[in-house]
Amino acid sequence: MMNDWDVIVVGAGPAGIKAGEELAKRRLKTLVIDRKQEIGAPKRCGEGLSDRWVTVSGLKPDPTWARQYINGAILISPKGKKIVIDSEKMGRTGYIIERKMFEKFLAANAIRAGAKFLLKTNVEDLVMEDGFVKGVVANNMGDTLELRSKVVVAADGVDSRIGRMAGLNTLLPLAEMDSGFQYEMAGVDLLDPHKMELYFGKSVAPRGYVWVFPKGEDVANVGVGISGTDEKTAREYLDRWLENNKRFENASIIEVNAGGIPVTKPVDEFVGNGILLTGDAARMVNPIHGGGMGTALEAGGMLADVIKEAIEENNVSKEKLKKFQDIWMEKHGKEFANVLKVRHFFEKLNDEQLEAIADIVVKGKISPDVFVELSHGQGLGKIAKGIIKSSPSIAKLIFEFIKR
Ligand SMILES: Cc1cc2nc3c(=O)[nH]c(=O)nc-3n(C[C@H](O)[C@H](O)[C@H](O)COP(=O)(O)OP(=O)(O)OC[C@H]3O[C@@H](n4cnc5c(N)ncnc54)[C@H](O)[C@@H]3O)c2cc1C
After folding, report:
1. In the chain, fewer beta carbons within 10 Å around the N or the C end?
2. What is the pLDDT of residues 361-399, one digit of tens each?
3. Are residues 186 and 140 in the same domain?
């Protein structure tokens, strides 16, 4: 194993693999390390990926991983009202992917670009010199390796420890974390095999939702995300929901997945001397639906440009690398702050209030498209105007909230 890299990327999830590819494309000697023995497995994901991110990542949907075309969603209120969103007409389609294949596909692209991968290798420490990160100390199947680099990219996911080792504050309070639990199931009676189903309600999933993401005519990821502070586990909510749902009577489990989802704002500092954080490690996750693959992929190109310039100028200081944070925040900072605000608003609503909002959409007073806007941090004003006659108290709540 060569011991002198331009960049070492810790973590071969979507963030780390794409960073590896983009860095290698810029002719930087890049090593991507992961503690897993297989890229893409185990998956911790509902596997929903919008077309927007496929395009931004310079990819074309490939049958090896683009498993099911998705043209919309069906939202189900606590009392069972169905709101159908036709996202095709909005130009916002997507896929439920086969993530294991997707990550291997991405990794093959990165390797073709010149990146090297080292698996079954746990990064245990950083090499620090004169206040700069200069590499990593890793355990490769029992052997200790000290690998040196000009820059380290921490793409080590939601439970990131690398940033903290470099002195960055990556503390994630439990209340800002969602706990996700999912079964991939076959024999599922889907409402529409090309639409995601999302179920809301305090007893269904407090602060979150149950999702059914189709992966075929009768195969789906069926999962739930709830607050990390809930007394009950996500699994308890999902099992109870499935028991109460006759449509799943003939379904059975083909895979079990679980994991944490950071539904909070990005970390205050993505960068330090010789190090930067990306993907879930930097909390680049949409805090309303918990999707983080897209932004993780997109960040690869952004950080590679910044690192290339920093290395060429022989200046990998925090000040220089901060350009990555500035670019990312410029693109997503305001939107994600608004999304977080929308989420905090919806958290406060009880089932009756959620039902009242569903009611005005079902009665055609506002378009179902408003729910897509909400996931981008907008649309609360539209709901307030639509609901002002039927539920003035909710409209008042929204107006007060918007003013804050
Ligand atoms: C239940 C659930 C459902 C989800 N559904 C969706 C969805 O439908 N759509 C979506 O876009 N997002 C979804 N997400 C979120 C999405 O999975 C993450 O946002 C995404 O994986 C972030 O990519 P990443 O590369 O930053 O981190 P990860 O994919 O977590 O990759 C981090 C990698 O770092 C490695 N690593 C960590 N520490 C070390 C170390 N010390 N040494 C070596 N390797 C290390 C890990 O093994 C891992 O491979 C979901 C998450 C969960 C938990």
Report:
1. C
2. 999 999 999 999 999 999 999 999 999 989 999 999 898
3. no
Q: Does 1 score more than 80 pLDDT?
A: no
Same domain? 186 vs 112 = no
Cα–Cα distance for residue pair 210/241, rounded to 1 Å? 8
| Percent share of the chain, pLDDT over 70 | 100
232/189 same-domain check: yes
246: DSSP letter: G
Q: What is the pLDDT of residues 63-83, one digit of tens each?
A: 999 999 999 999 999 999 999
Cα of 14 vs centre of ligand 1, distance in Å, is 7
Going by C-beta distance under 8 Å and a sequence separation of 6 or more, which residues neighbour residue 113?
Answer: 20, 21, 24, 25
Residue 147 domain flag: yes
Mean pLDDT computed over 128-138? 97
- The model's pTM: 0.96
* Number of domain units in the chain: 3
Ligand 1 centroid vs 385 CA: distance in angstroms?
38
Which CATH number characterizes residue 237's domain?
A: 3.30.9.10
pLDDT-based confidence at 330, cuts 50/70/90? Answer: very high
**What pLDDT sits at residue 402?**
83
Euclidean distance between the first and final Cα of the chain, in Å? Answer: 55
110's enclosing H/E stretch is: helix 99-113
Residue 58 within a domain: no
Question: Quick check: helix, strand or coil at residue 151?
Answer: strand
DSSP structure class, residue 267: P
Domain with 256, as residue range(s), is 177-262
Last residue of a domain, one of 311, 334, 357: 334
Among 280, 289, 297, residue to substitute to test ligand 1 (most atoms within 8 Å of Cβ): 280
Residues 131 and 111 in one domain: yes
